[in-house]
Amino acid sequence: MAEALESKYAQSQLKKLNAALADGRFVSVRKLLHELPPSDTALILESSPVKTRDDLWELLDADFHGDVLEELSEDVRNGIIGKMMPANVVDALEEMDTDDLAETLSSLPDQVLQDILQSMDAQDRLRAEQALSYGEETAGFIMNTDTITLRPDVTVDVVLRYLRLKGDLPENTDTFYVVNRTDNLVGLVPLTRLLTAAPDDKVSAVMDEESEAIPVNMPDDEVASLFERYNWLSAPVVDEKHRLVGRITIDDVVDIIREDAEHSMMSMAGLDDEEDTFAPVLKSTKRRSIWLGVNLFTALMAAAVSDLFEATLSQLAVLAILNTIVPSMGGVAGNQTLTLVIRGMALGHVNPSNSRWLISKELAIGFLNGIIWAVLIASVIAVWKQDFMLGTIIAFAMMVNMVAAALSGATLPIVMKKLKIDPALAGSVILTTITDVVGIFAFLGTATLFLL
Amino acid sequence: MAEALESKYAQSQLKKLNAALADGRFVSVRKLLHELPPSDTALILESSPVKTRDDLWELLDADFHGDVLEELSEDVRNGIIGKMMPANVVDALEEMDTDDLAETLSSLPDQVLQDILQSMDAQDRLRAEQALSYGEETAGFIMNTDTITLRPDVTVDVVLRYLRLKGDLPENTDTFYVVNRTDNLVGLVPLTRLLTAAPDDKVSAVMDEESEAIPVNMPDDEVASLFERYNWLSAPVVDEKHRLVGRITIDDVVDIIREDAEHSMMSMAGLDDEEDTFAPVLKSTKRRSIWLGVNLFTALMAAAVSDLFEATLSQLAVLAILNTIVPSMGGVAGNQTLTLVIRGMALGHVNPSNSRWLISKELAIGFLNGIIWAVLIASVIAVWKQDFMLGTIIAFAMMVNMVAAALSGATLPIVMKKLKIDPALAGSVILTTITDVVGIFAFLGTATLFLL
């Protein structure tokens, strides 16, 4: 038995690799890469700048190409495939499972995909086209076709003898599927059941008929939440006629769970989920500029609102100084509500039957927050600027903006979801625009009425 | 075989339950709850306001209490346990696996925990204390103790006969563990191997000696990344003497993966990961107010910086109007970098050997972004305000702030991690303070120099 895992293993290997690469000791690099499991090689490639990445790939034995490509994130993988000869890509794809093949091919730019398909022989091309035939982000797309099927009328003993003859089982096999003559799924037999059953029991007697099957076109995030909710390790996939077409295993679902959870965080900052931390400067700049452009537009809108009060601002410079406080507090409070509701929707907690309740709850919090921070800011301003009236005005604006923030934070994601817009992507820009505009209007407007 | 899963099943059940509850048809509610799997009941409880939640819990058969508690999130679970009689809690805990027991007990307030421990008989208390003996967020804390161990010198046939006698295997058993006389782990036998091996093979001949074991004190996020990286379904846990103490299964790891991924998103908005979407108003207000307080402080700091330029602002109201644009752009650009680096660190891509490279990359992006948005804002201002000098000044400030944003976005998380502060929690406040202060200084300072 190997030693207990050294947790920083991949990191120390990365250090060694970098040193060997810097010194031009290519034989050592090759040797080090040869010893690593594919997932560690993938991690190292993802942790390297593009140039180092290309050098390492050149030095990696072609036998490992497929296994490593499987483990890479989309952006990094496409970068590498784009620089490979199509024939070499075909070789690398040959050993892949259907689900990994589908994922790899579908994310490629069209031209690269066509080149690769054309370099394939007829059989491989058929397999690739089959893998690509299910819509992206569906159960069919992430399933594997390597199911082991049993007939209901054979005995456990026969099955065991068959398995011994067959030898190796597909990776992560934990369940056998029982199908009838027309390939309809009629039951499941967990491996554990097979081990503990009496040898002369019929499969039909030990199989589980109650289990659920996943329709081939179910969205992958629903598949993931079913796995998470019921603690499944694998699940059968059936077509519209309830024929078994494949199985989904937990390791593919784990990736979806992580991606979905990350998606909101990345989108809220205006980043692409698959964004490669070490992408070239120009590519990253281009990707991030859309978000900055949107933000410039909203910042100019806020400035245009302030512009309406130019006369007020030119008479009272103190208003200019305090003008950012109310919008900033509204933005933070609104984003808290927004984030909570977006997560609640992702976990399936927020739905039409309780959204009205949720909105009133958030409004109540907004109201309470408004009172707390209004009193606080009024006291600070009254002391700092020795102006009680000014304190009252900023307090009123704070109150208004906190309620507006809560209302928009709670309703925006619900409305956007109905309009089929991703709330994580656009929610926080729209929210900030609302809290900026309302905050400035409330503060400068009230000040214009009462201070001039 | 049941029908293919209806994906909105839980939602339609929730609707029915709510209707029955509203009409006071308690018998129907009980019946509906009785038919649901525990995870669906948990989802429904989490999707309900506290009052409804309490009513539903009252109506739920006590036999299901333990299974449902296991599936609930911390906040909701503690709320329910807090209202139960200690003796009833003890009954509910009796059937729990060690890992779920540890998680449930450890998150309880101290007084409640003491009451519950005191209501237990000696044997249960011992089990509870054992479950709690490993540090939270370690492998020991999330492991189960229900391993099936084999001796190396018995034959496969003997093992199979033993398993048939034993009957049911623990949930999610996919591997048997081979231990010697002193309980040291010497190998693993996957179930699939046992099925395909010849009956007279010795266990020592079919076992896998190369596999890795997890040290009992390894942090749980490292455990999760190992599972993710190597696509494990389960892994043995060993103590410092390499004795087998338990096993970790993928279903527990999935929860950690989701929690870790969500943690960053929630922390960046100043929320607690476990925050219950339907928590009472007062509790939520209190929790969120810390973050709002910090933000008020930083907003006041930004105002204090503007205050330094009161003379300038009182002469040129246009500066007051444009004062928010540069800080806002810096904040967004900096947050993009910050989010990317935080995610890169979570995925293990960012480490000491490449962080310098990453910082220079982000600086280059900041510089490029600075040029793009400086030119754009200068043109907008030159046209809008008919003032070329003003455009040049805001462009210069934009340039400076974009570089400052990139630099702080990239270095902050790296520095904070070294200081053992969670970058997701405090990173974005510090960053926004920096971009606000630098932005205002650069804009109003330059304007004071050149426009007065």
TrEMBL record, chains A, B:
Domain F-box: 102-131
Record keywords, A-Z: CBS domain, Cell membrane, Magnesium, Membrane, Metal-binding, Transmembrane, Transmembrane helix, Transport
InterPro entries: CBS_dom, CBS_dom_sf, F-box_dom, Mg_transptr_MgtE_intracell_dom, MgtE_N_sf, MgtE_transporter, SLC41_membr_dom, SLC41_membr_dom_sf
Transmembrane segments: 290-309, 315-342, 363-384, 390-412, 424-451
Residues covered by the CBS domain: 143-204, 207-265
Record membrane topology: Multi-pass membrane protein
Compartment(s): Cell membrane; Membrane
Family: Belongs to the SLC41A transporter family.
Function statement: Acts as a magnesium transporter.
Subunit structure: Homodimer.
NCBIfam families in the cross-refs: mgtE (TIGR00400)
Protein name, entry field: Magnesium transporter MgtE
